[in-house]
From TrEMBL:
This is Bifunctional protein FolD. It comes from the Bacteria. One of its GO terms (cellular component) is cytosol. Residues 3-118 form the Tetrahydrofolate dehydrogenase/cyclohydrolase catalytic domain. PANTHER family: C-1-TETRAHYDROFOLATE SYNTHASE, CYTOPLASMIC, C-1-TETRAHYDROFOLATE SYNTHASE, CYTOPLASMIC-RELATED. Belongs to the tetrahydrofolate dehydrogenase/cyclohydrolase family. GO terms for biological process: L-histidine biosynthetic process; methionine biosynthetic process; purine nucleotide biosynthetic process; tetrahydrofolate interconversion. Catalyzes the oxidation of 5,10-methylenetetrahydrofolate to 5,10-methenyltetrahydrofolate and then the hydrolysis of 5,10-methenyltetrahydrofolate to 10-formyltetrahydrofolate. Homodimer. SUPFAM superfamilies: Aminoacid dehydrogenase-like, N-terminal domain (SSF53223), NAD(P)-binding Rossmann-fold domains (SSF51735). Its EC number is 1.5.1.5, 3.5.4.9. Keywords: Amino-acid biosynthesis, Histidine biosynthesis, Hydrolase, Methionine biosynthesis, Multifunctional enzyme, NADP, One-carbon metabolism, Oxidoreductase, Purine biosynthesis. InterPro entries: Aminoacid_DH-like_N_sf, NAD(P)-bd_dom_sf, THF_DH/CycHdrlase, THF_DH/CycHdrlase_cat_dom, THF_DH/CycHdrlase_NAD-bd_dom.
Amino acid sequence: MLMSGTELARDIVQRASEKAAEYTSRTGRKPCLATVIVGDDPASVTYVRMKQNRCRKAGLDSVHVALPASTTTEELVARIRALSDDPAVHGILLQHPVPGHIDERSAFEAIVPHKDVDGVTTHSFAAMSFGHNEFVSCTPGGIVRLLDAYDVEIAGKHAVVIGRSPILGKPAAMLLLARDATVTICHSKTAGLAEIVRTADIIVAAVGRPRLVRGGWIKPGAVVVDAGYNEGNVGDVDFEAAAHAGLITPVPGGVGPTTIAVLLEQTVDAATRQPDA
């Protein structure tokens, strides 16, 4: 059975849109998301454009900052700090990845916590890990919402997260742990990966390697969340070979829509939480 994120995302965006309209009626302003992109990577450009379009459809404003690939860390940090200081901007998204010469972590940390609607700062990760009502990383947050929408039992289950990035693998593990799953985090240097995955009730593939997870790695009835997206609309799971999974997300149409929906929802929440709201 497929776990489609499309209908869930539509519901999340609809509620966010209603909340945005109420905020606009009360304040005369729209919640505003600032998107920052460095360079002209085609996939990143397309993804940012998609987010801007979804903002408009949901009744949000968007500000787009496009910087050349030659931008330095210092220049990027300065632009993000300016957005952090701008009262008209309620949320800030720095599109990942940035060019290799930029210190991405320094750029993320330039986002003030109350505008970190993508959940990428150290503050947001710590707050999320301790269960505080802060902004979650959008893709992991969308994954948990997707599991809930399909009535997947998380408590007491063995969840294997493949990937340890600070904006996907690690926060996904923390959110599952908070829901009482027993979590194993695997990565590129994990020995015996296939054997570990075979023990999983829930698999989150988030490593960025096409078709890494083979059908034979998945025990019958397991829930498979493919958070990978590779060239050619291919995920991190060999989709055709995973027919014996109990539930599986398609690529595209699974995790992607919920990621954007959570981003818009958290942008509206950021607007309503700020002092002048």
